Every structure is written in structure tokens, then in C-alpha cells.
Amino acid sequence: MSAYSKDKEISKLVKHLIKSGWVFKQGKKHGLIYAPKGGRIAVPCTPSDRRSHLNFKRNLKRIMTMEVDYA
């Protein structure tokens, strides 16, 4: 899959995460990206908000800090 989202910032970030060990799976409506040590985030295919890439980054930070806290 070449584009994971219509937002180029989100798509670029997902590509980077996949290279670092995360796993992407396509769902019925949205794709899901799974962290290597647990946790998942929905990837918006067609984001309607102009701040969607910032919200996606915020959610990623939450997952990453959960990994550190529980590891």
C-alpha cells in the first residue's frame, strides 16, 4: 500500500513507523497500526480536520509513553 491516508503527513508518519517495527492492518473503515509492544491506533484514511495529523501524533505519543511505563 503506497498511501495509508489521504493526508500526506499521516501517510509519511505511518511509513516511518512501519520501517521501525510497527504493523499496519487494513480494517473495514480505517487502518490500524499496532505498536511492537502492544497498543493500537486507528489511522484516518480521509481526515476531515485540518489538525488531524497533530491529533494522530498526540495519540502516538500516548501509546509510546504507555510502552515505556509498562515495560
Question: Which labels suit this protein?
Answer:
71 residues; alpha+beta; three-stranded antiparallel sheet; 2 helices; globular
Write the layout of secondary structure elements.
Layout: H1 8-19, E1 23-26, E2 31-34, E3 40-43, H2 52-70
Antiparallel strand pairs: 1-2, 2-3
Describe the structure.
With 71 residues, the protein is an alpha+beta fold. The protein has helices at residues 8-19, 52-70; strands spanning 23-26, 31-34, 40-43. Strands 1-2-3 form a 3-stranded antiparallel beta sheet, covered by helices on one side. It is built from 2 helices and 3 strands. 14% of the residues are buried. Helix content is 44%, strand content 17%.
Question: Would you summarize the structure shown here?
Answer:
With 71 residues, the protein is an alpha+beta fold. It is 44% helix and 17% strand.
